[in-house]
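INTERNAL AUDIT FORM
Audit reference: QA-55
Scope: verify that the stored structure record matches its stored sequence.
Auditor: D.O.
Record contents follow.
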Amino acid sequence: MSDVQHQVSILVLLVESLMYQANLMARIHERIFSKMNIYVGNLPYELTNDELKDVFQQYGEVSSVNIITDKMTGRSKGFGFIEMPEASSAKEAISKIDGFSFKGRNLKVSEARPREERSDRNNDRRPRRPRSY
């Protein structure tokens, strides 16, 4: 083998190694930075966080579950949020679970929208007029 052929084969090995490392880094980046927050609506009111987690764990790791409850009564409001660390698993879960009948209710599942900033509600209201009795 000539010197030129040897140098070319070394360059080919280096390029293949760099491509492998880039692919590996892309997969690591996706696992770290691609978490997805999922909205789940039309939940049965008696559903627990653990039961909801079980539904989604069939499609991948679930990092958090939060069923929203009324502050005064503690009763479920019928919707919640799931966080999954891998976007690909989350997208599969959304496509499979949306419309799924669970405990007599068809679940509504979608990627959660980013939470909007809320201003202080009391400052946005017009002043109340005193009641006249």
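Auditor finding: record pair retrieved intact. The two ends are 105 Å apart (CA to CA).
Action required: none
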